[in-house]
Structures are given as C-alpha cells and as structure tokens.
Amino acid sequence: MLRPGDPAEVAEAVAFARAHPGLPLGVRSGGHGISGRSTNDGGLVIDLSRLNAMRVLDEHRRLVRIEAGARWKDVAAFLAPHGWALSSGDYGGVGVGGLATAGGVGWLVREHGLTIDHVRAVELVLADGSIVRADATEHPELFWAVRGAGANVGIVTAFEFEVDEVGDVGFAQLAFDASDTAGFLQAWGDWVVDAPRDLTSFLILGGSRPGEPPVAQVMAVIDSDDPETVLARLQPLAEAAPLVAQDVRLMSYRAVMANSDDATHAGDGEPTSRSGLIGRITPEFARDAVRFLESGATYFFQLRAIGGAVHDVRADATAFAHRDAEFSVVAFGASRLRTSARWDELIAPHTDGAYLSFDTEQGPAQLAAAFPTATLERLRALKAEVDPGNLFRDNANIAPA
Ligand SMILES: Cc1cc2nc3c(=O)[nH]c(=O)nc-3n(C[C@H](O)[C@H](O)[C@H](O)COP(=O)(O)OP(=O)(O)OC[C@H]3O[C@@H](n4cnc5c(N)ncnc54)[C@H](O)[C@@H]3O)c2cc1C
Question: FAD-binding PCMH-type domain: which residues (predicted)?
Fold first, then answer.
C-alpha cells in the first residue's frame, strides 16, 4: 500500500509499479469503487487519500482545484460558504478521483450535467512517470479521455472544476405503494423526463415487509429554495400512487451530501452489480423490470435520471459518449450467476449503453456497451501512446491498439 503525498511521490509509486509488472495494481481515491478494483490481494495499491486539498483558483469564474483523494461530502462542505455546488453523486463518502474520471451522475445532473462536464483541467501522472497537465489546449486528447475513461490513461492527482451557484434545494424522500409496480415505474419515468431540469430523481424498487405491498422509494432534488416550486414539481408524482411516507424539506446541498461517516473504505466493491443506460421508460421495459424484480435476482434495483443537461454535450466531446440516455439502471445481486442470467435475459435487451462505474463485470462486452466503437478505437490509440505496457489495467481495461 503506497500513500503518496504529492504528484512526485505518485510518480515514484508508479515507477515502483512499473518495476513489478506481475503484481496487480489498484489505484484508490475514495475506495468506493463498485467493481472492487481499487483493492487487490497480494498486489500494490496506490492510495491517494493524502492528496485531498481544495482551494479556490478564481472566485469570478467559480474555478476550484480539488485533489483526487477528497470526498464529495468534503467538496460540498468546502463549496457551500461560497454559495456554490458541484453535481457529483448521491453519496458523500465517494472519492473525487474515481467518480470524476468516469462520469458523475448526481443530484443535480439534469440541471448541471455530469461531474466530468465541469472539469476544466486535470493534473495527472502517466505510466512513464511524467507529470502532465491536460486541458482543452494542452494534451487535449488526454483531456478528452480522462473525462469518462480516466482510469485507463493515468492517475489523476488534481482536477480543476468550474462549479455552479446553488442555494438551498428541495430534498424529497417519498415512499409509494407500488402494487402496480410497472405502472408506477412508467409514471415516475414520464414525470422525470417531462419535468423542468431543476428536478433530478432516483428510484429504488423491490422489497416489501411480509404481508405489505411493494414500496417504491423516490428521492428527488429540486434546485429551488421556494417551497411552492418544490411542491409543484412533486405534485404530479404524488398523484401517481398512494403515498405511504413522505419527507420534504429545504436544505443546503452540503447537508444533502452529508450522508456518510468518515470511515475509510477498502474498496471491496459489491458482490455483483449490473448496469445499463436506457431512454424513456417503455411499457415493455416496465414489464420486464417487474419480472426481473420478481425473479429475486436483485436486492437493490435503482433507476437514476441522467437526461437534461447531459444531452447538451456532444457525444464526441468526452469519452463518456452515451449522451442521449434518460436513465441509468443498476441492480445489485448476491449471486453473480443468477443476477447476470436474469439481467441478460430481461434488462439488457432494453439498454443502449452502460456506465461502467456501476458494474462489477468489466469485460469486453461491458467495454463495448460503455464506449461506442469510434470512442473505443480512439481510446485504444491513445492508450498505445501513453500506456503501451498496459500498466493501468486493473479496471475496465482498454487494451492498447
Ligand atoms: C455507495 C456508493 C454510491 C455511489 N453513488 C454514485 C453516484 O451517485 N453517481 C455516480 O456517478 N457514481 C456513484 N457511485 C460509483 C462511484 O462513482 C464509482 O464507484 C467511483 O469509482 C468511486 O470513486 P472512488 O474514488 O471512491 O473509488 P475507488 O475505489 O478509489 O476507485 C475506483 C476506480 O477508479 C479508478 N480511480 C480511482 N482514483 C483514480 C484517480 N485518481 N485517477 C484515475 N483513476 C482513478 C481506479 O480504476 C479505481 O479502481 C457510487 C458508489 C458507491 C459505492
């Protein structure tokens, strides 16, 4: 376990890894990777948790520099006094490095896009130990790749983000009687897609207490500090099914993200997780999602809005290319074989694209789902240039061309 304290020490750690090519190599920022690749057994881990500084670079441009080992709850707390926020994920304990090199589907995604859409520059250590800065003009190809496939091209030590002005937001946690699960799923999907961009919502389905109807848990952030606006956004959904519990409050984005403790995470990942991206929720998808839930193949089935501002960015502007998705679908399971078999049969036929951060399967099929052919070829060509020996391989590995 190597814990570098600055980019030069990261470069030394990378040199040590190069000298031991047979050893697994994990790169860890927050240790929350779902695939569990940031840890390993008997190999090396380069742990960036000491690199966690944050500072404002330009107050006027809302430009901040955040090191990779910081966690998103600390970022939210750092930005809050300025009246700023950066859409990241839903969980404060996740690390900056893993999420901001992959995508970043968070509470403000429909309004402000993915986390990678706010990256203006990165500082990274390449496989040969060189320390570079990449932005739109300096190493532009690296800058493109880092925003969606960063784990394959280097170790990012710091990001420059342009953040947004965000005041108090409406945070809703609602539970619905989902006896008509398919009907509710479609109603929720239509509500999200048709809502103004200030609304982002996530939905968890499955599980019920014995003798009670299934419950759908809806979480939503509405970027408004006006109670009437918050209620108006929620009202159409409140009419879709009986509400069994509700908690709606105005709070800071910082408070929304203060949902994790300070425990360190060893990056063990989930037993098994499958993921995909879909467009609008069709009756066929809703039907098959119910069959999937009823099969018992998942203990956690979640949909997340991923539309709105994500669609504004051109598909070839970043390595995250599936810009037309409306929802991310994720299923955690206890049995890899059973969950994958049911997923492949019932959910995969509806998906178009994948977000690798939510998948424990990281083989060629997942790569092909996550990156369209042209994107993958471009990434392979870059990989051949910056990491021909495939040092950074313990992730969804893009082999050099
Ligand atoms: C509870 C939970 C909630 C989550 N919620 C969301 C969410 O709301 N939205 C979302 O988009 N994702 C979410 N995720 C997924 C999360 O974004 C990814 O798992 C991410 O990789 C975690 O980042 P980390 O730094 O904590 O992970 P780590 O385990 O430290 O790293 C994961 C992988 O990222 C790569 N990596 C890490 N640091 C660097 C670096 N500095 N440079 C280059 N590559 C690096 C490595 O390949 C590593 O294996 C969630 C995960 C969990 C466990």
Answer: 1-166
Instruction: Give backbone dihedrals phi and psi of 400, rounded to 5 degrees, phi first.
Output: -60, 145
Percent composition of the chain: helix, strand, coil (DSSP 3-state, to 5):
35, 25, 40
The answer to whether the CB of 29 is under 6 A from ligand 1 is yes
Nearest atom within ligand 1 for CA of residue 89 = 8
Q: State which CATH number among 3.30.110.70, 2.40.110.10, 3.40.462.20, 3.40.50.850 fits the domain covering 272-373.
A: 3.40.462.20
Convert the pLDDT of each residue in 151-210 to its tens digit: 999 999 999 999 999 999 999 999 999 999 999 999 999 999 999 999 999 999 986 677
- Using a 6 Å cutoff on CB, does residue 147 contact ligand 1? no
* Segment 271-285, tens digit of pLDDT: 899 999 999 999 999
User: Which architecture does CATH list for 7-165?
Assistant: 2-Layer Sandwich (3.30)
For the chain, the domains span 7-165, 169-251, 272-373
- Tell me the pLDDT tens digit for each residue of 114-131: 999 999 999 999 999 999
Structure tokens that stand for 251 in this block: 């709070």
> Would you say domain 169-251 falls under CATH 3.30.70.600?
yes
Residue 297: φ, ψ to 5° = -80, -10
